[in-house]
Structure prediction request, 541 residues.
Amino acid sequence: MNLDHLPYPSRREPVFATNGAVATSQPLAAQAGLDVLRAGGNAVDAALAAAIALTVVEPTSNGIGGDLFALVWDGSKLHGLNSSGRAPRALDAGRIRGLGHAGMPELGWVPVTVPGIPAGWQALHERFGRSDRERVYRAGIEYARDGFAVSPVVANSWARFLEKIDGPSRTSDLGPQLVGWAAAFAREGRTPAAGERWRLPDHAATLETLAREGAGALYAGPLAEAVVDFAVRTGGYLTADDLAAHRADWVEPIGVPYRDSEVWEIPPNGQGIAALMGLSILEGFDLTRHPHVSTENWHLEMEAMKLAFADVHRYVGDPDFADVPVAQMLSADYAAARRTLVGDRALPREPGDLASGGTVYLCTADRDGMMVSLIQSNYHGFGSGIVVPGTGIALHNRGLGFNLEEGHPNEYGPGKRPFHTIIPAFLTRGGRPVGPFGVMGAPMQPQGHIQVVVGTLDHGLNPQAVLDAPRWRVLDGLDAVIEPGAGAEIHRGLVARGHRLVSPDPGETYQFGRGQIIWALEDGVYVAGSDPRADGLVAGW
Prediction:
């Protein structure tokens, strides 16, 4: 890792710390995690404090009603947690098609699955936490109750979601399902400006209940009753049995070797396997022959990504309901066979529906060597648009990850978990921890993971430099988009190879992802970076 020379201007320098670090997409949340570290908490406590605060200070991307995945290095071993929710048992693909939907709708009750975040928080705290539960909830409760200053990127995303649902002045057109969102997030018919103080009193009360009673309050207690009652009154499908049946599952991480290191992801139902497959294909190419940001390297990376997406969108579903051939998909022989398809020209590979998403990723590390890679999400912005009145719980629309294709491993089904886009990642070298990393942004996530790993291991970039670097993103068929900072020469070079480059959306903050990284150096020193595409911050100690 080169900590001195950069091949292009970096917007910020990396942060170094010896006692611990917290990297998030929102400064107030990063500081909430750091406060817990300084008060004697460990990396898991810090991650939870930051995650809970993020549901308040970045509600455009995550909330109490979303899902969570995490990787935890406990000092000697890597552990995986999947706390993604399942589909209501009262709904199936045939019934959704009968409602007139050719694909999963974005808003309303149909795409709502059981929230997994609170159960994930509790599972992490019970297994690894050191601080009191009330302590890790404290900052989130205070920000929600007393108010927080809205940061610029969050303010932009907030306004865009209001445009999507046509604004609170048209609530009569939206139906009773979405009225609660306007009451919580668009009071007086508008969203907050950057720098404006915003309070979420119902959200604060719910966090206080969870801090006092634990996650069970959402799955079998008073909060569960509020969710089910609202579903009954407004045509929802979640039942008390659906909520009570939720569990957060500890899973074995999956990984592949890349150069002198190992890259780790959560196994399906998530898309982390796509990043691993793409890296396995790239393992057979020498990416040091050309600059990190170059036509030659970007072409190879984009083609490997398209091949990985084509397989992942064909074979991945909930492993409780489908036989997902993980070992075959990650085998060196299969990667070698797929590698032969990469030539000098771009080829169309259908990666499925690559819609934009709303997610927060954070990572933490403490003085004892514990490290956490955590991601949580409401999926598209605020999710389904449904906020349960009196609770501040914004329910996600993670059901959008399903399809309605009969017989497909990922076809919507009662009790199933959808194909999931949110993926935390971790890097080791010879079985020793290098550290946690992640890039938010729906299908941009495995693409971002590949670009972080290649930038780090093939080109020696430090965490901040690799996050500052321009990025590519493949779409459907031959379509792709690249950041303007890549330059006209690379644009021309990719077009000459057959890539069909489309213009990036200037108002879409998620299209190229937003990442965080913490790497462990020698002698207990950490080096970390936070993506300039978000409002983020590395808080070190």
